[in-house]
Amino acid sequence: MEKTFAMIKPDAVQRGLAGTIIARYEAKGLRIAGMKLMMVTEEMARKHYAEHVDKPFFPGLLKYITSGPVVALVLEGRNAVAEVRKMNGATNPLEAACGTIRGDFAQDKGRNAVHGSDSVESAQREIAIYFGDDEVLEYDYLPAKWLFE
Ligand code: DAT
Ligand code: MG
Questions:
Q1: Among 17, 35, 39, 116, which is disulfide-ready with 84 (CB 3.0 to 4.6 Å)?
Q2: Distance of alpha carbon 36 from the chain centroid
Q3: Which domain does 99 fall in, by range?
Q4: What residues are paired with 115 via a beta bridge?
């Protein structure tokens, strides 16, 4: 089954939204394969956002993402990459649909509450930045028999 990397960013943790956001992913039927509260180091952020390091917004993004604890998540499900991107909503919360996490809980693209990998390859790369092999767990996920025909 497909795995993706998601992150509850520092603004959402500070605003007390971590539980609410995790509950949405759980309610969708995504299996939590990895989860931890952690600080993102500058080195991790530069790897994670390698495609953006030369962009004008990168210094602000670096400051933001390292500014407080995040919840790092590995989520598994059918089309997990695309489903989490859909649940997160558009990068700019002002353009994100109501019902999405960014649409419901954020107002600024520089404080957009969550991250989700944009492809299976990105997911594998990002999971390796934040998790050791022994921190991503395989276990019997009993809801699967009620989620899938
Ligand atoms: P996404 O997080 O939806 O994959 P992205 O990969 O294009 O979006 O950008 C990564 C993060 O960088 C994004 O969540 C917020 C920030 N960002 C992107 N474009 C920005 C901009 N023009 N101004 C400020 N922050 C921006
Ligand atoms: Mg991205």
A1: 116
A2: 12
A3: 2-136
A4: 7
